[in-house]
Design a protein that fits this description.
Helix content: 40-55%
Distance between the termini: 86 Å
Strand order of the largest sheet: 5-4-1-2-3-6
Strand content: 5-15%
Largest sheet: 6 strands, mixed
Order of helices and strands: HEHEHEHEHEHEH
Radius of gyration: 23 Å
Length: about 240
């Protein structure tokens, strides 16, 4: 009986220590998250708002955004450009060739399958680049959801942003609804907390200048017609917009 009581007491003390350790770690993690958020939102973000744009993020879903990316590549030759899940790689290569725009320091992220994931995978890349302020390219058909996600995902990391809105033609690449917007805002706010301690990794990031077109020869991919691209670019030059 005495041995059993001692064994029970030993087990009780052991689990008591484990519980205390767990509570200590939990308080430490929550404290770190809180301090990180405060630092990013209250200190880094206001500071970065006064900085110049040092990177460009293009949200996939529209060839017009990619056409605009070619213009930005020429207008800002030193800035890195990240196109998050846009058209197929050979299509974007052809587009940059067609417009004669620079392909160096233009990167393609192919992990995202939604607007939420555009930021989920792109923000860690921007942080690795040491970005302070980013120009985000999207379309009117993608608002206000994209703008909310910009504020939440980038703001939670202390990265400032400015929006560049490109008009769509034809069928929009994004269909917005209050439900979709509400769900994405909700999970983005939750992720804004966990993103202080977790960094997603995208294994499918390629520099545009290094895309191997030979790998695409036997694959069935489709691009916007060259005729349509030419007409869009001509309209842009004439000041008619997209």
């Amino acid at each position: 009986m005495v041995k059993k009581q001692k064994l029970d007491l030993s087990r009780h003390l052991f689990w008591k220590k484990i519980t205390r350790l767990f509570r200590f770690l939990l308080v430490g993690v929550l404290g770190f998250i809180l301090l990180s958020l405060i630092n990013n939102l209250a200190i880094r973000l206001p500071q970065n708002l006064t900085q110049d744009v040092d990177a460009i993020l293009v949200l996939g879903g529209s060839v017009q955004r990619e056409i605009y990316a070619t213009e930005l590549a020429d207008a800002y030759p030193k800035l890195p450009i990240l196109i998050s899940q846009g058209s197929s790689e050979p299509c974007i290569v052809d587009l940059f060739r067609f417009t004669g725009s620079r392909k160096s320091n233009v990167w393609l992220e192919k992990c995202a399958n939604s607007t939420f994931e555009n930021f989920f995978f792109s923000v860690p890349i921007l942080k690795d680049w040491g970005v302070h302020k980013v120009k985000v390219v999207t379309s009117p058909t993608h608002l206000p959801r994209a703008e909310w996600l910009v504020k939440i995902h980038l703001g939670a990391q202390g990265i400032a942003a400015e929006m560049s809105i490109v008009k769509e033609t034809g069928i929009p690449g994004n269909n917005e609804s209050l439900i979709k917007t509400g769900l994405d805002i909700t999970r983005s706010m939750v992720w804004g907390i966990f993103s202080q301690i977790i960094r997603p990794y995208c294994s499918d990031v390629t520099e545009l200048s290094k895309v191997d077109l030979n790998n695409w020869k036997n694959q069935n991919y489709q691009c916007e017609s060259r005729l349509r691209l030419y007409k869009n670019l001509q309209r842009k030059k004439q000041g008619l917009g997209f």
